[in-house]
Amino acid sequence: MWFILALLSAVFAALTSILAKVGIDGVNSNLATAIRTLVVVVMAWGMVFLTNAQSGLTEISKRSWVFLILSGLATGASWLCYYKALQLGDASKVVPIDKLSVVITLILAFVFLHEQFTTKSLIGCILIAAGTLVMVL
After folding, report:
1. Within a domain: 94
2. H-state helical runs in the chain
3. Domain assignment present for 92
């Protein structure tokens, strides 16, 4: 099931980029990000209430709150930079560079989460980086 959800995530992320590139035309990138964020907030809280998960709110530890807030700040910074880059550049060049986050995530997961970094991971990182370079040059 995780694979199907991950694949759907990739499809929706691709749609996000294309729809955003069209929608951002003539709109301040920060304002566009705020509109997108508002839609995401409404959708996410809608799912919380639809699945009756709101009762878990009081059970979240302080540590989890800190890391979820930091994650939210990182998401916000990412979206602000992404929308500005998308406004200034071609989607076909901005998106591959944005997807270097895969390489950065693997490295950070190895360093901070002590996840396994194998030869296969290294080769994949090199190929993703090389592919990104080929696409943007």
Report:
1. no
2. 2-23, 29-50, 62-88, 91-98, 101-112, 119-136
3. no
Single-letter residue type at 63 = R
pLDDT tens digits, the chain, 137 residues: what are they?
A: 999 999 999 899 999 999 999 999 999 999 999 999 999 999 999 999 999 999 999 999 999 999 999 999 999 999 999 999 999 999 999 999 999 999 999 999 999 999 999 999 999 999 999 999 999 98
Chain-centroid distance of CA 78 in Å reads 7
Query: Looking at the structure, do residues 77 and 116 belong to the same domain, yes or no?
Result: no
Domain count, the chain: 2
| Residue found under tokens 């396994």 | 116
If we measure between CA atoms, which residue out of 63, 74, 67, 79 comes closest to residue 29? 79
Q: Supply the pTM of this predicted model.
A: 0.84
- Residue matched to tokens 């009081």: 58
